[in-house]
Backbone:
């Protein structure tokens, strides 16, 4: 049964943080840019915010990290707000079974990426967000959106990380050019990638990220304003995409072990949404061979087991 006693959840995150501190297999920190490579693999943070507005956290829950691909969830939300279901003509909604930055399916599938969470799909989303804007304005829109859903004006973009992404983004540039050749990118590739690299460089901590995920836990509603960020149907669909595609070619394994919709990033963060119950952010920079946080996944597995929060448990919330 889902835990209802506040003390239980605090005790649980404290226990999990302690267990993670003792782990020796922490995975490998992403090293393609200095802004990520220098992060100490010893970090671990967790924050859980529940439907009743309570927050439980442990470890490095207030330390900023690069949210990287977790930003794709929020960019997708913005893009759906702009063009609605027409988006699905330009990006699919099937798991790819391939690495996050793979190009292999794009030729056979005519430049339509499998889903919005692989890099190719997220680059199409950046193109949609860019429409009618200068790149700077589009980046500003994403940043404002993050501050709004997290209820926190202190969120910023790490310019050094954004620069690093641009300097090493050869694959992303190839993906964007390839899709442009198919007519699925409408703006100049440098501008589209400028938007994509800056959203990847959003710097947030676990508490902020857990709060940013609240609208996906609450059927699309912003808990502070009461307004809908998205409709209940759209929140449900974004959660479905997170479950099926949020960990790339590790999505099946994550569903098997954790069973909660989640989105990972190469900065070592994972955002998980337990519909109606909780929004959870974990961070540990060491990654497994699929590019997902090693200890983040393990911690979420332990949380899911202890709480019964897997969406595959057919029990009434307590
Ligand atoms: N910035 C990274 C990239 O585009 C994001 C990938 C990720 O977090 N999986 O390669």
Residues:
């Amino acid at each position: 049964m889902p835990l209802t006693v506040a003390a239980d959840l605090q005790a649980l995150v404290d226990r999990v943080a302690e267990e993670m501190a003792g782990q020796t297999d922490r995975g490998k920190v992403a090293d393609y840019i200095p802004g990520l490579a220098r992060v100490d693999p010893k970090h671990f943070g967790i924050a859980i915010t529940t439907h009743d507005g309570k927050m439980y956290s442990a470890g490095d829950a207030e330390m900023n990290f690069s949210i990287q691909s977790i930003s794709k969830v929020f960019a997708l939300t913005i893009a759906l707000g702009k063009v609605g279901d027409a988006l699905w003509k330009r990006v699919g909604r099937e798991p790819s079974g391939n690495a996050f930055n793979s190009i292999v399916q794009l030729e056979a599938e005519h430049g339509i990426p499998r889903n919005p969470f692989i890099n190719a799909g997220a680059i199409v989303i950046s193109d949609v967000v860019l429409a009618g804007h200068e790149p700077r304005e589009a980046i500003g829109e994403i940043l404002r959106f993050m501050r709004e859903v997290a209820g926190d004006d202190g969120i910023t973009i790490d310019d050094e990380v954004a620069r690093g992404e641009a300097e090493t983004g050869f694959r992303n540039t190839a993906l964007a050019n390839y899709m442009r050749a198919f007519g699925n990118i409408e703006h100049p590739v440098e501008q589209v990638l400028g938007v994509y690299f800056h959203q990847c460089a959003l710097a947030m901590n676990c508490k902020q990220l857990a709060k940013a995920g609240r609208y996906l836990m609450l059927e699309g509603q912003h808990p502070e304003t009461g307004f809908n960020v998205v409709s209940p149907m759209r929140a449900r669909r974004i959660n479905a995409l997170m479950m099926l595609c949020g960990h790339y070619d590790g999505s099946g394994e994550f569903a098997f072990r954790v069973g909660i919709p989640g989105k990972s990033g190469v900065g070592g963060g994972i955002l998980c949404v337990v519909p109606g119950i909780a929004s959870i952010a974990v961070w540990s920079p060491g990654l497994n061979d699929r590019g997902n946080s090693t200890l983040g996944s393990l911690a979420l597995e332990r949380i899911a087991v202890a709480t019964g929060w897997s969406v595959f448990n057919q029990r009434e919330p307590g």
About this structure: The pocket of glutamine is lined by residues 68-69, 100-101, 119, 165, 172, 200, 265-266, 291 (CB under 6 Å).
